[in-house]
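[[Sequence with C-alpha cells]]
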Amino acid sequence: MGYFEIFYAWVKVHMKSVVGNFISEVLVRLLVLLLLFAVHWNWISKDTFIYCLSGAYFLQLLAMKLYAIYVKMPQLRFKLPHNFKEIMSYSLFIILSGSVAVLLMDFDKVMIPLYIKIENNALYSVAIFIATVIAVPSRAMLQIIYPITAKLMNENKLEELNDLYKKSALNLQVIGGLVMLGIFLNINQLYKLIPNDYSAGVMVVFIIGISKFYDVILGNNNAIILNTKYYRMVLFFGLLLVFMMVVLNMLLIPPYGIEGSAWATLISVFVYNTIKLLFVVQKMNLYPFTINTLKSFSIIVVVFLLFYFWDFNFHPIMNIVLKSILISVVYIYMNFYWKVSSEINFIIKNLFQKIKKLLQMKQEY
C-alpha cells in the first residue's frame, strides 16, 4: 500500500488521478467484496481470505505502477536536490501529521475496551464503516483537487483558488448530502439485514455521519493549509484533536458507551475543523461558503423530514431501493430547481439533452 501511494502521487502531480482513484476506491473494494462473499459461502477459508487480500493489494500496486509508467516514465537520479533541507522538513511534518490522522482513525476503538466490554467494538466498527461511506465521494474528488490547489498556490492565483475553494465545498456538500440522506433515511431497513445484536449502533451512524459530513463540506481546506508556509499548523491542530479525543472518550464512554465515543469524535472533529476553517479565513482571506450553502442545507433538512418517518411495507432490500430512488429524484430536482450548483446543473442539462437526442433518433428510425 505504501508503494501504491508513491506511484499514485506520481500520477497526481501529472494531473492524472482518475484511474488511480478508481483502482484504490473501486477495484480493490470490489475484489475484497467478492472475497468476503467467498468466505460467507465457504468457498475459501478465513486464512485463505487473508492471503487473497494481500494478493488484491499487490494487484493494486501492480496496476498503479503500470499506469504511472504509462503516464510518464520516472527517471532515477542519485543526486540531492538543491532544496533538500526544505523537502526533508516538509516531509517530516507531513509524515507526523499523517501519523496523527491514522491514529485518530482507530483511537476510539482502542479506548472502548478500556471502559466497556470489547464486544461493543464490533457494533461500533460496523456503524463507523457505514457512516464513512459519506466521505467516499469527497475522497475521490479531493484527489483531483489537491494537485490543482498546489498549482494555484504556487502561482499565487488566490482569486482562482478562492473560486475553487467555494466550488469544491459546495459540490462536495451536494454530493455528500445525497449520500448522507441515503444512509440516514434507510438505516433502519439496513440494520434489518444485519443480525439484531448490531442495531445498537444506529445512533452511532447518525453521530459519526454528521462528523464525516462536516469534513466533506470544507472542500479543499486541508490542501490549502498544507500548501502554505503555515503547513506546520496541521500537526499542531492534529495533536490538539488527539488530546481532545482522549479526554472526551475518557469522560463519555463510561456513562454512554459507544454513543459516548461517537459524541467524543463529533465534538473533537467539529472543534478541529472549525479551527482550520477560521485559520484559512483569517490567514488567507479565503471563504468556502456562499448563499448556496444555506440552500443546500435547507434541501437536506427538508428531504430528511419528508422521508425519515415512513417506509414501504416491503422486504428491506426492496424498501431501500425504492426509497433511495425517490430520495434521489426529489433531492436532485430541488437542487436543480434552486440552482444550488452550476456545475451539477450543467451535468444534468447535458444528460437530459443526450437522452432527448437518443429518443429523437429512435423516433426517426
Remarks:
- The chain has a mean pLDDT of 89.
